[in-house]
Specification:
The protein is α+β, with helices and mostly antiparallel strands and about 325 residues long. It is built from ten helices and 13 strands. The protein has a seven-stranded mixed beta sheet, sandwiched between helices. A six-stranded mixed beta sheet has the order 1-2-3-6-4-5, covered by helices on one side. Helix 2 packs parallel to helix 3, helix 2 packs parallel to helix 6 and helix 4 packs across helix 5. The radius of gyration is 19 Å and the shape is globular. The mean pLDDT is about 90. The structure holds adenosine-5'-diphosphate (ADP) and magnesium ion (MG). Magnesium ion binds next to helix 2 and strand 8.
């Protein structure tokens, strides 16, 4: 059975007829040329109950996250958010749920400066689909296909907190109350790295947001750019809470294959690293170098003892066998 990405490639990926389509299927968002100065950047993401969030998730968190994951795709392109539309499928009219959902949604909208301009409301299993639009200067959007041999690989923030939060929620790991709250907020209320994305314009050669897992999302950059990469496992930044929680059992799988962090993963030519370090200082989230782009295709990960880590699964894919 074909997986998510094979389905897209086989049935939906076509050559575009219009010259104003700069980027379409295969990146974090589409880039459409609107006039001489600006490109319109468009992305859609859908959250399905039971797949993207457990049945008992707080409606405020669902509202916040469903917009935040779209903003994260705009961030990965270096775009400034402008508008979004909301397609909402509801199993029933539950006003207290709607109240919570709307307050989370608009908290995220207000924080990141994006306006709701339309949508659709239907009856059926709970499903939230948001289309977000933003702008970049012409030809400036950060794409997945620009990584070159020798470029350094960086990430923003910390990796693995959301996977730890999910594991705790599923009862697979137990955490102290304050650590649990931190990890659940990283899982339910991701911070789209819009400032970082904008800062990376003219610095990064390629970028993506980490939604499915670090290894899986890096592989999208590698495939699009026709290069390979080597990562140093211990360089991958983890929060103090993550390190403490996993002190007795290093949870590298969560770091490399866990999704939902919504940090940015990007590549930078050596000559631009000093500029990146300087510009990165003013970012609240921090940036860390985790590896480099190599000619040999595929992804290699060095463990502490110099051996290579073998990954059983790189990350989440819908319809994965
Ligand atoms: P992301 O994780 O960044 O949101 P996805 O992995 O969902 O991106 O999608 C990969 C690419 O395939 C994107 O460019 C997306 O727009 C495109 N895509 C996904 N599903 C479809 C579809 N049904 N029709 C057209 N394009 C699609
Ligand atoms: Mg993305």
């Amino acid at each position: 059975m074909p997986g998510e990405f094979e389905i897209i490639d086989r049935y939906f990926k076509r050559k575009n007829r219009r010259k104003d389509v700069v980027k379409s299927i295969g990146d974090d968002a589409a880039v459409l040329r609107t006039d001489a100065e600006k490109d319109l950047v468009v992305t859609v993401d859908t959250l399905v109950e039971g797949v993207h969030f457990p049945l008992d998730t707080d409606p405020e968190a669902i509202g916040f996250k469903s917009l935040a994951v779209n903003l994260s795709d705009l961030a990965a392109m270096g775009a400034v958010p402008a508008w979004f539309t909301l397609s909402l499928t509801l199993p029933c009219v539950d006003e207290s749920w709607l109240q919570g959902f709307a307050s989370g949604l608009f908290e995220s909208a207000d924080r990141y400066g994006i306006d709701l301009v339309g949508g659709d409301t239907t009856h059926g299993p709970l499903c939230i689909s948001i289309t977000a639009m933003g702008f970049t200067s012409t030809s400036k959007a950060l794409c997945r296909n620009g990584a070159r041999v020798g470029d350094a690989i960086f990430v923003t923030g910390y990796i693995g907190d959301a996977a730890l939060g999910l594991a705790a929620k599923q009862g697979k790991i137990s955490l102290e109350q304050s650590s649990l709250e931190y990890c659940l907020s990283r899982l339910n209320r991701p911070s789209p790295r819009l400032d970082a994305g904008r800062m990376l314009l003219n610095i990064a050669s390629a970028a993506i947001d980490i939604s499915d897992g670090l290894a899986a999302d890096l592989s999208h950059i590698l495939n699009a750019s026709a290069v390979g990469a080597r990562l140093q496992l211990t360089s991958i930044p983890r929060s103090k809470i993550f390190v403490e929680a996993c002190a007795y059992r290093p949870e590298w799988r969560m770091v490399v294959a866990g999704g939902d962090d919504y940090e940015l993963l990007f590549t930078v030519p050596q000559s631009k690293i000093p500029r990146l370090i300087q510009a990165g200082e003013s970012l609240g989230c921090g940036i860390t170098r985790i590896g480099q782009i190599e000619r040999q295709p595929g992804l290699r990960i060095d463990d502490t003892d110099g051996r290579e880590v073998v990954l059983a699964s790189a990350g989440y894919q819908h319809f994965d066998a």
